[in-house]
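Feature request disguised as a bug: please show the residue count (124) next to HTH cro/C1-type domain-containing protein in the output. Example input:
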Amino acid sequence: MNKEQFSKARSILGKTQKQLAQLLGVSLKAVQSYEQGWRSVPLHVERQVYFLLVNRRQKDQPRKRKDCWTQKKCSNKKNCPAWEFQAGHLCWFLSGTQCDCTVDKDWKGKMEVCRNCEVLASLL
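Example output, currently without the count:
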């Protein structure tokens, strides 16, 4: 997650830097540093930000979530934890997903792929 995406996520969440820092369990200085690009956003913080985005409430209209297996026309869903736990909108959050592009990757490698996937990209 780059500084622009981090700032956009904070804006979408409607939080001040201080409020987001409290939600993420980091210092205000850390949030400021992520937004300025002085520090890269750690993977665990990025994961928390996406989790907050996917679970935010929208006042004007509820989102219709599309499951990953539908969006990606998955043929291996029966062996995937996203299918097992009916978390197709959280596939990027789960380790061990069976997407051709992320299977057998460590967390860092998985997130590099997921950042460019339409399932996760729809959050920003």
